[in-house]
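Final report, closing paragraph on structural work. Over the funding period we assembled a curated collection of sequence-structure pairs, and we close with a single example.
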Amino acid sequence: MQFKGTCIAAEDSSYNSKSSGRVEQNTLTCIDEDSKARLKDTVDVVIPKEDYERIKDIPVGKTFAFDVREIRTGLGARFRFAARLAAPAAPPK
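Its predicted structure, as stored:
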């Protein structure tokens, strides 16, 4: 599933796992940019550290496309997406 959202906050959400050690990840809180069927609340998008390194220079206020791999419930009506940054489209030849 594709999700397009504008980042309003970013935080390090890395943690230590008993089975796999340190899990490096970041959470971007985003507003849905779908104009036809917009989600009412913000979405927490969890991305791996290597994806965050590509966008870490002031991600707040920028719009990103994500390839969502898992959807989980969050607090209240919020969703929590496990995702990767969508690959940019190749320029036309």
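The two ends are 27 Å apart (CA to CA). Helices lie at 49-55. We thank the funder for supporting this effort.
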